[in-house]
Amino acid sequence: MNVHYLSYPNHLFMNEENKAYSLAIGFFDGVHRGHQAVIGKAFEKSIEYGLKTAVMTFDPHPSLVLGRSKEEVFYITPLEQKIEILKELKVDTVFVVRFTSDFAKLTPLQFIDSFIKKANVKHVTAGFDFTFGAFGKGTMEEMEQLSSGEYTVSVVSKQAYEGDKISSTRIREALKMGDLEDVMFLLGRPFMLSGVVVHGDKRGRTINFPTANVKPTEGQFTPSTGVYAVKIQVQEKWHEGVCNVGYKPTFNNPDEKNLSIEVHVIDFDQSIYGEEVVVHWYKRIRSEQKFSGIEALKEQIGKDKEVAIDYFKEQ
């Protein structure tokens, strides 16, 4: 898969092989089932017209540049992870457009001339609510009107589950609630968090439940506090585990708010400090709680471990 990073006004697009594209366009945070429907339609058109399949996405999130969000934006799929998922979906080319103040000022026509026509796009697919150009004034109807016959357009209707739109916002809300089963369906796969194993307080070893302290990729969304059944990829191998997301109230001052992500990897005793890992999230077992002492904590972790083992057996 080819990845092209483009920016405006200094972007340099070189289509050396003169490829023509069926393009799916959108921000695609999560690459969820709704996004997959858009990309799937682009694939259909690539086969119909004999084109290569491409995806155009944007980085960073527009709200960071436009100042619409007062809170820090956390991604369901940070850019590198998004690219890897698109690679697994067998997309031929990904265009990553740098979202800047200058880019945000482009009129719909300027955007089409610079990023659609110059890329030799022959078909454009997007969701029904996709907008582009300054102040989001460009609609997919306008995308078609401004084509000058150089490309055709498909619009994918709202994709819904249990009556509500499948969206990145809905997935974030489900993650905040710890509703991993809903998240898994909306994404079409388990929620994934990547990071590096760093040194923690090593307290888990003293109670016979050593943990990998995972520092997540910067800007990545983290599920709500609690205990989860997870799988963790270490050195290209997957292992079952129990993950605690929280502030460790049994040991820490409640006024200290240092969130930790700790995975007890079942039947695993290797040192993996510094390793890049991926955590897949499957089921929320319980809320984080404060225990009366270490023995009570050990007993509960043992129960959590059994719940996770049973869950994966049933799968």
Automatic annotation (TrEMBL):
Quote the Gene3D superfamilies the UniProt record gives.
HUPs (3.40.50.620), Riboflavin kinase-like (2.40.30.30)
Function in brief: Catalyzes the phosphorylation of riboflavin to FMN followed by the adenylation of FMN to FAD.
Q: What is the lineage of its organism?
A: Bacteria, Bacillati, Bacillota, Bacilli, Bacillales
Looking up InterPro entries in the UniProt record yields: Cyt_trans-like (IPR004821), FAD_synthase (IPR015864), Riboflavin_kinase (IPR023468), Riboflavin_kinase_bac (IPR002606), Riboflavin_kinase_bac/euk (IPR015865), Riboflavin_kinase_dom_sf (IPR023465), Rossmann-like_a/b/a_fold (IPR014729)
**Protein's name in the database:** Riboflavin biosynthesis protein
- What CDD domains has UniProt attached to this entry? FAD_synthetase_N
Q: In which pathway does it act?
A: Cofactor biosynthesis; FMN biosynthesis; FMN from riboflavin (ATP route): step 1/1; Cofactor biosynthesis; FAD biosynthesis; FAD from FMN: step 1/1
Q: What EC number(s) are associated with this protein in UniProt?
A: 2.7.1.26, 2.7.7.2
Sorted alphabetically, the keyword list is: ATP-binding, FAD, Flavoprotein, FMN, Kinase, Multifunctional enzyme, Nucleotide-binding, Nucleotidyltransferase, Transferase
Keyword tRNA-binding applies: no
Residue ranges of domain Riboflavin kinase in the record:
186-313
Q: Which domain of life is it from?
A: Bacteria
A GO biological process held by the record: FMN biosynthetic process
Which family does the entry's similarity section mention?
Belongs to the ribF family.
Quote one Gene Ontology molecular function term. Answer: riboflavin kinase activity
Q: Which reaction does it catalyse?
A: FMN + ATP + H(+) = FAD + diphosphate; riboflavin + ATP = FMN + ADP + H(+)
